[in-house]
Amino acid sequence: MGKQVARFCTSARCLAKNMKGRYRISPDVKLRPPIIPTINNIKMKDDHPLWQFFSHKKFIRSSKEVQHTSRPWSIQELRKKSFEDLHSLWYVCLKERNKLYREYHIYYEEGSKRSTDFISLSDDILDTMNNIKHVISEREAALKNAQAEFITGGEQYLAEFKKKYLEEKEVETDEWYDKLERLQYAIFGIPDVLDTSLKVDVNFINGVKFIGNLKYDKFASKIGREDLNGLKDIAEMYTVFEESATADGLKEACTKIDEYRKSNLVIPESKEIRVVQGFIDDKIKEAENEFSSEAVEKS
Known about the structure:
The chain is built from 10 helices and no strands.
């Protein structure tokens, strides 16, 4: 074996060498016993998102607390619910199953038979979630069938809808607002809420044109804006489309159109999809920025 002639210099060795005759810690400092970690030393904010995995902020429920006599929601009952209600119910079920699975896992690791009570309730909730999927699938199939039928008789349907809308004396009602929303979604696939996955296609453009022109034809004479002589391009039609289906909504849109026409721009048909996609992307980005600003202010 070779003879040791040197050692690597370490910061601890150098510090000890340089501090001969001195204390690293002042002799006046009194050392106290360490604090033993306990659950009482941990504080959690009341609004911490992880509380959503706990029922009423309890670590674990007893078997008696999860025993139930209820049943899953039936398909017949769920068919009467709106999409928003189904969406909310789905996430209520999902959150409850997350709580149950966490508690089940704790009992299971201990080998306790009480874990079966949690699985029983979770299975019933899963049945509800499967029934929600079934109802949504039914609606999706109905939508596709309606769109397929519209290909053959759609123009006649739209003509009849337009005639009824223009002849109706009062269309600024919840009933007619709902009819317009259902029409634009069922026929043209335009949702009432925008999201980042939305892609504009020819059918979407046709919907913007139909709804935009319909609103203009209905309210132009009422607000004295027949001087526009109709909507000239997709930019003007989209401007009317995104405003509310009211006389005030058209008045607001016409103010924007007056400003737009000063530019003497006319968007060709070949660029309609790209232009409208840009409008929608800008609107989504604006909404996201507003949401971020509100979150910063609250924090």
